[in-house]
Automatic annotation (TrEMBL):
<dbReference type="InterPro" id="IPR032287">
    <property type="entry name" value="DUF4838"/>
</dbReference>
<dbReference type="Pfam" id="PF03648">
    <property type="entry name" value="Glyco_hydro_67N"/>
</dbReference>
<dbReference type="GO" id="GO:0045493">
    <property type="term" value="P:xylan catabolic process"/>
</dbReference>
<protein>
    <submittedName>
        <fullName>Glycosyl hydrolase family 67</fullName>
    </submittedName>
</protein>
<dbReference type="InterPro" id="IPR029018">
    <property type="entry name" value="Hex-like_dom2"/>
</dbReference>
<dbReference type="InterPro" id="IPR005154">
    <property type="entry name" value="Glyco_hydro_67_aGlcAse_N"/>
</dbReference>
<keyword id="KW-0378">Hydrolase</keyword>
<dbReference type="Pfam" id="PF16126">
    <property type="entry name" value="DUF4838"/>
</dbReference>
<feature type="domain" description="Alpha glucuronidase N-terminal">
    <location>
        <begin position="65"/>
        <end position="164"/>
    </location>
</feature>
<dbReference type="InterPro" id="IPR006311">
    <property type="entry name" value="TAT_signal"/>
</dbReference>
<dbReference type="GO" id="GO:0046559">
    <property type="term" value="F:alpha-glucuronidase activity"/>
</dbReference>
Length: 786
């Protein structure tokens, strides 16, 4: 579609604002007053095939879409969407009629619940939950099955979802991305009667995939995702689709905002057992909930811990000790008490609270009030494996216990690497298995946090949203088949190669035993070996060739390649060393790869390549673009290695460093060995340059050297200019004074001792955190065999 914010509108679609009411024919009530059929129509005797309703053939249809006059904008929009997409599928025009009388026809598609057809079927809204809907075939002229169809939800949103479900599951429309909808063309559109009879409810009551690539409200509604929380809630939404679930009180990290008396604060949180804490919390929550209700919102609010740890006051600790030592116990007891107080003033009120980090361990023998929603957030999980697995034993045990203690659990899980949204994060199948496990536990809500604060282009974000949306409605679906379907629909002929790419990376995680925490600080995780990256690159080369003549599909593949291209461009030095060691000829094709990376970065719309943490510019894509586009000159060997064979020393340059993006930039520097150096402002304390000791060869011990300079601006010669160290442990460091670097030239600093390959250790360089030094520069780090 040309405009990703609107659904397709074929020429000739009826205009709701000018639609006339069709008169004549029997009234709806009179036609269906005796109808009580609720099951599927029966097939002809001796057959097992379900009969079909032919909605259109050869560009013509006998069907009209009927909407009751009492329906609001959401249901009328649902009818318009049904008409528009059916026309796009079949080339037939399906008139939309707003009326409370029934046209004299057995070729009707009745949309909504405010009509006598729905009343005649006695559809129970309680059975359909918040978002469910009923499908029924009927004959408006007599009691019993017929060729007309009713789509009616328990709510307006349920009706909207019923229409989208029919268009998607039965007619084949696929909303893969906000700007990529696949609409099949059918000369003859015939739907099975069995598929048009039955009730449909989502397994998860609350469903949100929190990612910038899915922020478009129409895209989320098309895929039956009912969550709209956090900053997304404040974005403008057209009235015809502005219907979202209020089940989850999502406000978080607000203990100190709700209870502002600092005498009631303790150890970073609250004195949870103190009566005054509970009284103040209840009073403030009543005030906030009443204001929310006055604005037309639901009567719920979050009351959750601050986003740091807790050293409890004695009374809270004593209560925790009495309930298995779980620090969640005093918090749950407080929530149970506070929600009871709030409901004395607001009987329908509900509260929500977090089970997160220090409070994730559930208490023993302390049921949660039915009016409190628990948000369990397993941020410490290894997302390479399902949440309930041997690798996540404590996480799985905690989730199982929370599900026993509370009937209202939302799981806040994590589906990306927040340190770098582009880094391949092969949790794709594990993510799907977790959904099925949570469904089996009885969890009611799912909040999957992805690259939420970037403009778009995160690693396989649309695939995650589309697959998760379907599993959250029906966890029993085949996840692998869904992944394949998305890849074929979104990447076309390249889909099979993208699938092979995903399988390769997932197998590499399994074979290496690598973990996938949601914060990976390196571009060299164990699963991205030179061999795996080279094979993955070949698969995406092939994928790109297959769609080279289709600009849309080619753009999709090239945006997918952002992550792998980034890894290759930023680790090219290490991969050249690996290729040499393995005797492999390897050409990274820098000119073409850099050009593709920059073009795809622009096309992606990405505004942050990592979590921004308060909008400080931490994830500025230009920082990443600068690094990826470097073309350093060959560096001469440092004087300390002259005369040594190549096997006895290793040079590490800017592209080998792990850099802190907020303050550390690579700049041109004619004094540096490669023409580039890393520059850090002197008034920061960051370990802005880090060199993982996993880059050292696996055999032997090595001495380490850093080549550094500083702009000291005539500062006190005895003041610190910079510090170089190896961590762990703390204290293994050297502070270089201003007097040693006052000439503005590069100097070599030797670290004491020798070091070996270690995946946990790093060399680091930090500025002095002083205004006496303007900038600190790092040219290179090199190692000499001990």
């Amino acid at each position: 579609m040309d405009n990703p914010d609107t659904s397709p509108r074929p020429t000739g679609q009826p205009d709701l604002s000018r639609r006339s009411v069709l008169r004549g024919g029997a009234a709806l009530g009179a036609a269906v007053g005796m109808t009580s059929v609720s099951g599927p129509a029966t097939a002809a005797p001796g057959t097992t095939r379900s009969p079909r309703l032919v909605l259109a053939h050869g560009g013509h249809t006998a069907y009209r879409i009927v909407v009751g006059t009492a329906e609001g904008p959401v249901v009328r929009h649902a009818a318009d969407e049904l008409a528009a997409y059916l026309r796009e599928i079949t080339s037939a025009t399906f008139p939309v009629v707003v009326t409370d009388e029934l046209p004299d026809s057995d070729h009707l598609l009745v949309v909504g619940r405010h009509n006598a057809v729905a009343a005649g079927f006695a559809i129970d809204a309680n059975d359909l939950s918040d978002d469910g809907f009923a499908l029924r075939t009927f004959d408006p002229r007599r009691a019993g099955p017929g060729r007309s169809v009713l789509i009616a939800g328990a709510s307006d949103r349920g009706t909207l979802y019923g229409v989208y479900w029919v268009l998607d599951r039965l007619c084949g429309v696929r909303w893969f991305a906000p700007d990529h909808t696949v609409v099949p063309k059918r000369r003859r559109l015939a739907l099975r009667v069995d598929d048009l009879n039955g009730d449909h409810t989502p397994r998860f009551r609350f469903r949100e995939v929190f990612a910038a690539d899915g922020v478009d409200p129409a895209y989320r509604q098309h895929n039956l995702l009912n969550g709209s929380s956090h900053h997304v809630r404040d974005l403008p939404v057209p009235a015809e689709i502005d219907t979202w679930s209020d089940y989850w009180p999502y406000e978080a990290h607000n203990f100190h905002h709700i209870v502002t008396d600092q005498d009631l604060w303790a150890g970073g949180q609250l004195k949870a057992m103190h009566p005054a804490t509970r009284e103040q919390a209840a009073v403030e929550l009543v005030r906030r909930i009443e204001a929310k209700v006055a604005n037309g919102r639901d009567a719920s609010y979050g009351f959750s811990q601050m986003d740091w740890g807790w050293t409890p006051d004695p009374d809270s600790q004593t209560f925790a000790d009495a309930h298995g030592g779980a620090l969640s116990a005093p918090i749950i007891d407080m929530l149970n008490d506070v929600v009871a107080r709030v409901r004395e003033r607001i009987p329908q009120a509900r509260l929500g609270t977090l089970a997160y980090q220090f409070s994730f361990q559930p208490p023993t023998d302390l049921p949660v009030s039915e009016h409190v929603v628990i948000t369990a957030a397993p941020i410490e999980a290894d997302f390479a494996h399902p949440l309930i697995s041997a690798r996540n034993e404590a996480i799985g045990s905690g989730l199982e216990t929370w599900a026993r203690l509370s009937a209202n659990v939302v799981v806040w899980t994590y589906n990306t690497n927040f340190q770098n949204y582009l880094l391949p994060f092969p949790n794709w199948w594990a993510m799907c298995s977790s959904v099925r496990q949570l469904a089996e536990l009885g969890v009611q809500g799912y909040f999957g946090q992805g690259a939420w604060d970037n403009g778009g282009g995160a690693e396989l974000a649309h695939l995650r949203l589309w697959v998760l949306a379907r599993l959250l409605w029906d966890p029993d679906l085949d996840a692998d088949a869904l992944i394949r379907e998305f890849l074929d629909g979104y990447y076309g002929a390249a889909g099979k190669d993208v699938y092979a790419y995903m399988r390769l990376l997932a197998a590499a995680v399994e074979e290496t035993g690598a973990a996938l925490p949601c914060f990976i600080s390196t571009l060299a995780p164990p699963y991205l070996t030179f061999d795996v990256v080279r094979r993955a690159d070949a698969l995406l080369d092939r994928a790109e060739r297959k769609v080279r003549h289709d600009p849309t599909l080619l753009r999709h593949v090239q945006i997918l390649r952002l992550g792998l291209d980034m890894v290759i461009l930023l680790r090219r030095n290490a991969f050249h060393r690996a290729a040499k060691d393995e005797g492999v000829s390897w050409d990274p094709d820098l000119d073409r790869r850099i050009a593709r990376f920059n073009a795809a970065l622009d096309a992606s719309g990405m505004t942050a390549f990592r979590e921004e943490l308060g909008g400080k510019g931490l994830g500025n894509p230009e920082w990443l673009r600068t690094l990826a586009s470097l073309r350093p000159a060959p560096a001469a060997p440092p004087p300390e290695v002259i005369g040594r064979p190549d096997s006895e020393w290793i040079d590490y340059q800017e592209l080998d460093f792990t850099l802190w993006p907020l303050t550390t930039w690579v700049v041109e520097d004619e004094k540096a060995s490669s023409g580039y150096a890393v520059r850090m402002p002197g008034n920061t304390p960051d370990w802005g340059v880090q060199v993982p000791l996993s880059l050292l060869p696996r055999n032997g011990a090595w001495r380490l050297y850093a080549v550094v300079r500083a702009e000291t601006n005539g500062a006190d010669s005895t003041a610190p200019a910079l510090t170089v160290g190896v961590y762990p442990p703390f204290g293994n460091e050297i502070t270089v004074l201003v007097g040693e670097l006052s000439d503005g030239e590069y100097h070599t600093v030797e670290l004491p001792g020798s070091y070996r390959h270690d995946s946990a250790d790093m060399l680091w360089v930090a500025p002095p955190n002083s205004d006496q030094v303007r900038y600190v520069y790092v040219d290179r780090v090199f190692a000499i065999k001990a």
